[in-house]
């Protein structure tokens, strides 16, 4: 074998996406609220875009004479397909810096500036006040306590390590909070400071273990206080595994007393700091609404009325055809108009695709809409792609982060794509159906003789659903259903 360096010519085929195709995919993937924001951003960045008013959409066939309306010859000058697309999707961070400075006839956009200012004002007016954090809440309580400055300083360091995301547990070593070369007396001070922090509200805060957290919340006025104390100290794991006969033997109390004491655990919080987590509840706005027509068929309607309808500015079309316009001005307008046209086409293509995809899904999942979730049919994205006549990745983008309002509630579009298994009679059964049947069996079982996973396989088989034991175990855990031993009721009726 001989190695050499040289130049050679080879022909290679590579697939590249045009900027227009990339923008179409981006627009298709946006949910309706994000699309609305994107359109508003594009209007602010591209002066060639205008919002088409309602009167323009009235369908009036009698066109009024508009002195700014371009002629057919002028319209032909707008976009040329043979131009380079390299810079068509650059976003203007500063419109003034890019726009040629010697344009005398460019109109100002004071109305857009005012609209943006109004939106910002509304946003600030409606902004939610930042909720008080766990650390702030504890610091305010600490500041009201009459303790010496040294203890207060250590307590503040302890509070600074607490995190609401892990329930407010103290996970740091006390020694790590002290200065190098600290004495045992300093460590004792730190222990005292930790006790002070643990005495603050909420009860159980700054605990080092689950047992310590629960014990710090117990007070003598609890029913079964003594039994609860022993259960928390010595039998938490046995309690979690429902090993009540073992606890009965070790503690010398009846299972009935243990069960009654266990009910008191509902008054204890294993993660007291979690109440200070900032929970973000996303706004769900349906992209599609399902309605039943007079013939009893389900039809879909896009909910995109809040997305403004765009058009190209007649003023700039006319300016492009103006013989007095400079070459620099013409190039700027031509490029911006082409970008605007691509956006308008991408939005229209999104409407058509989402409409077709949603309609195909609804027609396939008619049983779900008629009879309920347990009648959902197994469905793959490839099946809808074959019906609509697009690639499966287009289906994935079309349903991504989009919601559909149906007579049975609002669901993500992805909810209707479910895997399944084949029943004994050869029919495909969705995993959602199996999940609902499994939950129903567990809810109705005899808790003194709960179904094992093998028993659940047999019970589902009686319903015509053939499922492997490992699959039952997987779904039981996924649904948070305890094992048969943990579900067993040890008290004999």
TrEMBL record:
Composition skew (Basic and acidic residues), residue ranges: 66-79
Disordered, as annotated region: 44-119
Record flagged with keyword Glycosyltransferase: no
GO biological process: DNA-templated transcription initiation
GO molecular function: DNA binding; DNA-binding transcription activator activity; nucleotidyltransferase activity; sigma factor activity
GO cellular component annotations of the record: DNA-directed RNA polymerase complex
Annotated RNA polymerase sigma factor 54 core-binding domain residues: 125-316
Top-level taxonomic group: Bacteria
Keywords, comma-separated and alphabetical: DNA-binding, DNA-directed RNA polymerase, Nucleotidyltransferase, Sigma factor, Transcription, Transcription regulation, Transferase
Domain RNA polymerase sigma factor 54 DNA-binding: 331-488
Pfam family, one: Sigma54_DBD
Family annotation (NCBIfam families): rpoN_sigma
Family: Belongs to the sigma-54 factor family.
PANTHER family to which the protein is assigned, alphabetical: RNA POLYMERASE SIGMA-54 FACTOR (PTHR32248)
Name of the protein this chain belongs to: RNA polymerase sigma-54 factor
Gene name of the encoded protein: rpoN
């Amino acid at each position: 074998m001989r190695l050499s360096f040289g130049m050679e010519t080879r022909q290679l085929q590579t697939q590249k996406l045009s900027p227009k195709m990339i923008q179409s995919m981006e627009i298709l993937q946006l949910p309706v609220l994000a699309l609305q924001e994107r359109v508003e951003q594009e209007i602010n960045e591209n002066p060639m875009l205008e919002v088409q008013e309602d009167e323009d959409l009235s369908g009036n066939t009698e066109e009024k004479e508009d002195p700014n309306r371009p002629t057919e010859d002028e319209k032909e000058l707008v976009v040329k397909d043979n131009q380079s697309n390299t810079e068509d999707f650059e976003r203007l961070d500063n419109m003034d810096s890019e726009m040629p400075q010697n344009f005398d006839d460019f109109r100002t956009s004071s109305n857009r500036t005012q609209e943006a200012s109004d939106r910002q004002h509304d946003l600030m007016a409606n902004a939610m006040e930042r909720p008080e954090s766990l650390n702030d809440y504890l610091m305010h309580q600490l500041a009201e306590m009459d303790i010496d400055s040294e203890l207060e300083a250590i307590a503040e360091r302890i509070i600074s390590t607490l995190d609401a995301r892990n329930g407010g547990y103290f996970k740091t070593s006390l020694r790590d909070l002290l200065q190098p070369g600290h004495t045992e007396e300093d460590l004792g001070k730190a222990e005292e400071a930790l006790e002070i922090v643990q005495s603050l509200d909420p009860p159980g805060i700054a605990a080092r273990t689950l047992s310590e957290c629960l014990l710090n919340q117990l007070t003598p006025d609890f029913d079964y206080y003594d039994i609860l104390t022993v259960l928390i100290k010595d039998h938490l794991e046995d309690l979690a595994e429902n090993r009540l006969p073992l606890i009965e033997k070790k503690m010398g109390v009846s299972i009935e007393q243990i069960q009654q004491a266990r009910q008191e655990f509902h008054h204890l919080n294993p993660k007291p700091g979690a109440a200070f987590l900032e929970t973000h509840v996303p706004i769900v706005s349906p992209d599609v609404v399902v309605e039943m027509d007079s013939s009893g068929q389900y039809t879909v309607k896009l909910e995109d009325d809040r997305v403004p309808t765009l058009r190209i500015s007649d003023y700039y079309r006319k300016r492009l055809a103006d013989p007095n316009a400079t070459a620099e001005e013409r190039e700027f307008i031509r490029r911006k108009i082409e970008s605007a046209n691509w956006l308008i086409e991408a939005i229209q293509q999104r409407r058509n695709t989402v409409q077709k995809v949603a309609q195909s899904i609804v027609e396939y999942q008619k049983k779900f809409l008629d009879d309920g979730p347990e009648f959902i049919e197994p469905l793959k994205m490839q099946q809808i792609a074959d019906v609509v006549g697009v690639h499966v990745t287009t289906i994935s983008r079309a349903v991504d982060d989009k919601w559909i309002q149906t007579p049975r509630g609002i669901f993500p579009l992805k909810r209707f794509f479910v895997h399944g298994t084949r029943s004994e009679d050869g029919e495909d059964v969705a995993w959602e159906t199996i999940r609902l049947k499994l939950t129903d069996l567990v809810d109705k079982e005899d808790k003194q003789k709960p179904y094992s996973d093998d028993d659940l396989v047999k019970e589902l088989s009686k319903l015509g659903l053939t499922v492997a034991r490992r699959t039952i175990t997987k779904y039981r855990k996924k649904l948070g259903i305890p094992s048969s031993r943990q579900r067993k009721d040890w008290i004999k009726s």
